[in-house]
Amino acid sequence: MARKIVVTSGKGGVGKTTVCANLGVYLSRLGFRVCMMDVDIGLNNLDVVMGLEKQVIFDITDVVSGKCRVRQALVQDFSYPSLYLLPSSHSYSSSKIIGEHIKNITDIIEHSFDYILLDCPAGVEAGFHRAVYPADEAIVVVTPHLSSLRDADKVLSILSSYHIENKYLVINRMRGDLLLSGEMLNIESIVKAMNIPLIGVIPEDDDVGKMSSDGRILTDTESARAFTLLSENIHNGSKKIFDCTYKYRGILGYFKRSIKRRV
Ligand SMILES: Nc1ncnc2c1ncn2[C@@H]1O[C@H](COP(=O)(O)OP(=O)(O)OP(=O)(O)O)[C@@H](O)[C@H]1O
Ligand SMILES: [Mg+2]
Known about the structure:
Rossmann fold; binds adenosine-5'-triphosphate; alpha/beta; binds magnesium ion; 8-stranded mixed beta sheet; 11 helices
């Protein structure tokens, strides 16, 4: 039976969809059957980020309205054959879809997958409830900024009223150079403020989400290494955290830091 994990944050634009897409790819690379569900209804993103938008025939709203069966709406990612996407729509009155509808869908497919990843919209309104309701675990994505931490804290207090067994923290867009110079909130203080287990740190990386010519996500980048560790931690409970500062250490690192400052 699939683990159902919602990727949420409260604040918009912190990297929920990026984390969801990469986790989907890296878990499927580990050999798991993964379904990513885009529950950001009305603002479809995951199909675009995954480069699958041209393959979309039906979407989640067609499933809910009974126009098609779940399996007809699932899009297989041929670059990663055990990875599927249930796309969202870009035009629908999302208020007609409630958490129970999404749960009915996860109930139907949960025996066919090892992981169901739910990409949550920003905010804590109806869309948040829809995405969180069917989940039994949550990844809370934050960036090292106070506004993000404040919203995530709100999300964590709301999550306590749901049946979420495990909550994990992912810190996204961490800059190793600013960490070393003390100009960015450090990992320890973020973990202390959030008070949930840290499961991944993803560096700020211009290559995030970039695809190679065959449609595969680039695997030799810093963020790729961080997402690999995150997927392993999710799956086997290890606690290997990517060190964003390593390339800024030593004399060579010092020059890299000063160059980065000037660009
Ligand atoms: N680690 C990173 N390094 C560089 N850019 C990143 C990183 N993570 C995310 N981004 C970029 O930040 C932008 C927002 O990311 P994303 O869409 O994943 O956020 P989101 O939380 O899903 O947003 P929304 O709340 O609107 O759904 C995207 O352009 C994405 O490529
Ligand atoms: Mg998103």
